[in-house]
C-alpha cells in the first residue's frame, strides 16, 4: 500500500512537471502566432512614407489588430489586415518572394492580399488610407 502511495505521489509530480513544461513551451508559440489581443490601439495610424521603401512591408497595430502597409515593387502602396483569413494567425512578409506567408498552415497571399495557396478562404482585408505631405494615414 505504501508503494502505491509513492507511485501515486510520483505520478502526480511527473504530471505536474509535464504540464509545466508544456505550458512553458506552448505559451510563447501561441503568443507569437495568435492575433494581437483586443487591447485598445489607434483607429488612425500615421506612418512616414520614407519608412516603407519599395518592396518592403511595415507591420503595425490598427484598431486592436495587426495590420501591414506594403510598398509594392513599382511603387504602389496598399494597407491590409495582417490577420490570416483561415484561422487568424498573423502573416509574415517574404521580401524575396514579394508575398505574405501564414506560418500556421502555409497560406500565401500576393502583396495585394489575394490568396495564391493554402487554406485561406478569402483575401486579406484592405484598409483605407491616404497620403499627404509624406505621411501615410491608415484609418
Ligand atoms: S491560419 Fe493562416 S493558413 Fe491557417
UniProtKB/TrEMBL annotation:
Assigned GO CC terms: membrane
InterPro entries recorded: Rieske_2Fe-2S (IPR017941), Rieske_2Fe-2S_sf (IPR036922), Rieske_Fe-S_prot (IPR014349), Rieske_Fe-S_prot_C (IPR005805), TAT_signal (IPR006311)
Q: Where is the Rieske domain?
A: 44-138
Give the GO molecular function terms.
Answer: 2 iron, 2 sulfur cluster binding; metal ion binding
Q: What does the record give as cofactor?
A: [2Fe-2S] cluster
Keywords on record: 2Fe-2S, Disulfide bond, Iron, Iron-sulfur, Metal-binding
**Keyword rRNA-binding part of the UniProt annotation:** no
According to UniProt, the name of this protein is: Cytochrome B6
